[in-house]
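Re: [help] complex structure
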Amino acid sequence: MKRRRLRASTTEAIAGYLFASPVILGLVIWVILPMFGVLAISLTDWNVLRAPRWVGVQNYVKLFTTDLYFWNSLKVTAYFVVLNVACTVLYSLVVALLLNQKIRGRGIYRSFFYLPTIIPVVASSALWSWLFNPEFGLLNVLLQAVKLHRSLWLAAQTTVVPSIVLMTVWAGAGNTIVIFLAALQGVPRELLEAVEIDGGTWWHRFRAITLPMISPVTFFNVVTGLIASFTIFTQSYIMTNGGPNNASLFYVLLLYREAFQRNNFGGAAALSWVLIIIVSVLSLLIFRTSSRWVYYEGEAR
Amino acid sequence: MMRRLGMAAGLAGALLLLMALTAGADPVKIQYGYWGDQNEETSTTALLQTFMDAHPNIQVEGLRFGSNTQFNDKITTLAAAGTLPDVSTFYEPNVLTWGMNGQFVDLTDFYKKAAPKLDAIKFVTPDGKIVGISVANEIQVIWYNKRIFDAANLPYPPADPAKAWTWAQFVSVAKKLTRDSNGKTPNDKGFDPSNIRTFGAWVQQWWMPWLTFAVSNGGGMVSQDGKRLMMGDPATIDAIQKMADLINVDHVSPSPQSQQMPTGVATSLLSGQVAMAMDGTWDLLTVGTTKDQQGLDFGIGVLPYMKKLATTSVGTPEVVYKSTQHLDEALALLGYLMDPASSLPLLQNGIWLPNEKQWYTDPTLLQKWIGNPRHPPEYKQAVVNFALNYSNRLPLYYVPTFGRMDDVIEAALGQVWLGQKTAANVIKNEIMPKITPIFQGQ
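Output below.
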């Protein structure tokens, strides 16, 4: 009797899938199935209190035509995303470059800049709403000390989004800084030295070696920053509740309000699918253009 | 041997009988949901315990769901899961929409049998069902610091509704009380509106104050029969413009985005930042405590009027869910919670007014809640008489689309309070085109 034996590669594959199964199952059960559940809800008129009623794409049509907040919310969110990603990446890169210098107490500085990241967003939002207070907030006291005009920060339509960006950069840049720092340490020293021997300045080294060498990491930070920024919620939920005059009514805050305060779950589900599509398309675009500005070592330019 | 067996059988029988008896007396379990902080949890737990002591056959489990808006998230989730409590407080703007979706027991008969409740605080759906009622009544009045009036040698705001100020009188007094950092009033030359030390009258910008004066001016958000949208009426526009003028023209009230925004009625009266503040009767708790601890010499007056004297009422709604398995017990709990005698501590400390008419008219009952040092002598006129005879229903009690319309209105009115645009402009061009379809779609 001849027992059929599995080929080595097959057993390996089975073991591989088994090991990966917790992640795969988790992804399917907690992410992919609910996503399609939400898709189904988005095609109904459902307020939780009554059985859902099938309405086809009506929720989507409403969003793009008659909804009072959709376009404004998209505009406000886009403004936040662009400003936040740009500021976070720039700030993190500068801080990472500084922290990469050989200075005394480097470890202390590194933990200092990482520290805000471990504070819960709720706590830092509460803290910053005090700092932003137009009357007795620390930021205005500082502005006055250097003879500058006070700002209304969160209380004015024009300054509310930049204020939230300021806070988000402070609170959220820690991880980005660490990733940049790791990348900077991976920049081959011999290349930097080669520039130096050729008489290149600090700027030449940065422009010709460092920047291209860390471009994959910059790319990663931009993409993850983009996705995270689109889903901003807590800061405006706690500090401004979307105001003033809906100037910080971010997309996810609108989604929350439709679902949990106005019981419009169909509309909220449609909102979330539109968001998924927007983020996917943008990520795809960035991936497509990445070959032009991201350099991978060993790759011909 | 047989005897022993018999005894054992007898014992077993007795035991069974006992079990059957206790099973029959097994209390009915119901759940009561509410919002509030830790202090309210303590007081609510005590309240429920008193009820259970009086009704040994009912066991009530209290469920605290965080703040008023968190409460709505939670209750929505419970509705989706089909595990709603039996009785609960509710998020005001959604009482009618949930009631119209058949979630609440129609309480019309229940309230016909009970002692008459105030009309202003019943939640009535367009088809006439009472789906909820406020456990307490809270109206808008004027709070003032007597010392600031004495120093300026001006008469106090009247407590007697019959002697209420007109709007013009109110503005005139407020101007005389307002002082910039050089001690000048808005009537003086060289007055500096960007450095005001004392504001004559602080009027806030959320819906309750402007709805009150809109009604006083013969306008409002929606007519009292719920049929006509009145937001665009000249009377409503005029009332809102006059309130915005308090900030930007008369300079007697702080701007919502000003750098001198007061933080609370009691503290701003005490510090002299504000001479008069229009706000709810609930302030008596903090204002009274500030009097006891820091000697704030305060008084209460009725509101000024534009065309007719008016105030408005709010209060936390209580509802009974249709999904309850124990309707009689749930209604017994509701009856207990809604009885002003049950909330006597909250009536006595000043935060609430009772929801029943007889507690305003019967001298014995009245004495029970205002007969203490917390309630000043003018309270009987400025609050009790004012609340009983001059209070109006707010649209959240009879307009199911109130929440949706208010989202639009509050956001847009911000520009009026800041003086960037006129009330007429914002209401006609930005508010009415958006809320008209919402109102008609109800």
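The domain at 69-293 of chain A is CATH 1.10.3720.10 (MetI-like fold).
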